[in-house]
Protein 1
Amino acid sequence: MAKKVNNQVKNGNYHSYYKFREDEVRSQSLENGLLSLWTKVQKEFTDDESVTMHMLDIGCNEGYFTNEVHRILQKVTRRTCRTIGIDIDDVLCDRARINYAAIEFITGDVLEIAKSRGTKDVIEEHMQKLDIIKFDVVCCFSVLMYIHLNGGDEGLRAVLDYLCSKGKLLILELQSWKKYRDQARRLKRDGDESYPLFDGLEWKGGEGKLEGFIKNYIKEKGFDLLLESSEKNKFDRQLLYFKAR
């Protein structure tokens, strides 16, 4: 009998994620990065500290790190920040709403939103309510791997296109090709299932090759890579900061 597929493994929407994923290094790295960049880029946003910043966090889970980013962004920029977190999982969004009332959490599948332009887009609906054309900051921490595994190269490019169209400053945390292979093995082990598009991926390769495909694509979309964090967290991941030209 085949094992029951665990969608948390397949999509990365792990419950109680932050009980086994410490984030102190990531938080400090994020703060260090924003501190080093903000004086260089703030004039391209506005010098007026009374103007509200708007941030979107893709794959917010139960909201813990979304709240950390929200806090750090306000501290560094000295501005009020309105933050939206989105996750594929209703249960996680419900937990987030209870614990972090200052942030708005919505449920949605960013891969499906990006692939289905013209259909229901809960992010765009909230942007219209906020009366904004773009978010000042769009974050995506350790989520793009799952989008890539489930959506293939085409799905990942669609999501990158979407993120580039929605944000002025992108903060991304990528995962290595080794993590992709580990994740494919884990899905096979836990659910006796494979990612159907995994073997056909063209964006792949160790020693930074996979990450290079993603970086170059974002640059081609009109963004400059301003900074790669010098330190990696305990899970061997760096933060990348891109700014629209």
Protein 2
Amino acid sequence: MNETGQKMVLTTFMLPAGYHKDSWRKQGSRVEELPGPDFVRDLTLKAEEAKLHAVFFGDMANANAVLEGDIKMNGFYEPVTTLSSLAAVTKDIGLIGTISTSFESPYTVARLIAGVDHMSKGRAGWNVVTSGSGFQNYGVETTPSPAERYARATEFVSVVQQLWDSWADDAVIVDRKNGAYTDNSRIRKINHRGEYFNIEGPMPGPRSPQGRPVIVQAGSSAQGVELGSSIADGIYTAQPRKEPSVEFYAKMKDLIRSKGRNPDHTKILPGIVPILGSTVKEAEELSEELKSYVHLEHGRAQLGRSVELDLTELDFDERIPSSMFVDKPHLGSRYLLYKYKAVDQGLTLREMIIDAARSTGHQSVVGTPEMVADVMIDWFEAGACDGFNLNAPYNPGGFDQMCTMLVPLLQERGYFRDKYEGTTLRENLGLPIPPA
């Protein structure tokens, strides 16, 4: 049992087609319903019943993955419209959506996320990303460098936060007698003049229930770490091994502290893919079944693009020669993970494709709920994380297993709550409302 009383933060990456690549081929996947509302609503309600902190939606600004035969990561569910619809059918669970800083205006994004926060009564979150593709869909022919994208993102988030703070909490007075809805002295223009944006402000409406909606960020590159430590309430990270995760956790907390921020108010959440069975044999059989659905040629092409290597001449049972891996800082931390698996672990091309299909750089555990819970608790107690982002390997069955087999074990052992503590996402994460 948990003797410290500290509880995990648990969110889930909402990928209706399943986190394990090509798992939509499994019978009963409900893939025919994408991108309709019923399936994603049912999964979200299941997550809320399990008392998860939030559902998290990624996004894609192009159709490249689908055209390459992969519907795992896609833009089927535009986050803001999807979260708005889910706000109407849920009561407690947080609703986190991705919007890239590379394409939109900070004023638009500030309004959109604040709008979801109002519609959900304080349960909205924004996953801040920069984009490495999709620029041609926004009239930009050449993809900017990572340094430029992150410089824009840093200013972008600052402007959004200023806009969220442009109304004081007490700006709305509703003085019927004197005909004053607002105290205009409590509303201010931000008059931002920067390298990328010139924005007057203020927001067109009152501050949202959380003051500032929760901000999460994913990215373990040097630029990503710098941005996340500066602005994030939660950080998603790919950490397949415990010891490097402990090091990353300590590094991030120190960096957050060095910037005058409270490190306890930024939750570090590595991803985990639990492939569950009531017995080890059952879990292993499920793992083998999911592997059987992976399209190897699509996987070869996708892996080659991810690491910028020509793998067309390699046999599936050959290893990628270590000489092919050279320094490519622009590819970020996942490139180093792929290099580690190919060079240090000696995985064959086939094994690399299967590994990428199953976990995309995250930790994957095959076993009983008790075994997976043991791993999660071990990481949590070792200071490797504040919780996890749960990735269901397939849907709806794998999602149901996580919520009805794994989470209840964590609750029984005292590592996860059995009821929501508050009414907003900030309250449930134990985060204060930032003053305007």
Protein 3
Amino acid sequence: MDSSAHKFYPVHGFDSREHLETYFSNKPDMAFGDGSIQFPMECLHRAFSEGHIKGDLLIDISIGSLIHHLYTASGYFKQILVLKCSEQCIMELNKWINTHTGAFDWSHIMEYIKCLEGNSDQCQDKDMTLKTAITNIMKCDIDNENLTDPEVLPLADCVISAWMLDLISKDQDDYINNFRKFVKLLKPEGHLIFLGALNTSYGIIGQDKIHMFRYDVKFARKVLTDEGFVIDHCVVHKRTAESDLCDYEGILFITAHRE
């Protein structure tokens, strides 16, 4: 596949609803559910259940209009601040928060949470708990050193980034620079939770081929340690799906902290 034909997310964006339907829905033909939904949620449930990652503020910088990775987090932070690169992603999220007609249906996530947590009564409240915890959805500009310039955000106890660095980075130097911008939002003793797709070059959303930066576990770990992070957990879920929608080899989940 010719990489010159790939669209670059920060410049061209993508259809946020098409992205959700393709990679995060409950459709029978949805190929990547084990990597995009099940594996991340199992890892997040385990990480938060250990009790070390919690606090007042969590900042999420993830692609598209994802929220499923925040359901478990909402029980451990008083506030969640969501940063998005595009107005379309913000509009899609606001539909869900305000329970508007046509909002994306995340009910299949509730069923999966029941399997993980085993308490159906608490799971029924998770949707409202997360909506209440999300105190703001803000537009960010990844070209700025301060992503929300001119507004300066309070430092977070935890930053979650799901697949964002993969789509906004053109090469290794770009990836490292973007990573440094993200972790500027973190308290000195804060925790980082990171999800990425390994050894991939593209993802297809609708009719668009979206650029993704190719990297491996060794590179990701080196970036974190070079920037002063101690890696607490590093797990890879190897790809099982057969589909030409994306050429990733595995999903990477990392939790880390600063000493």
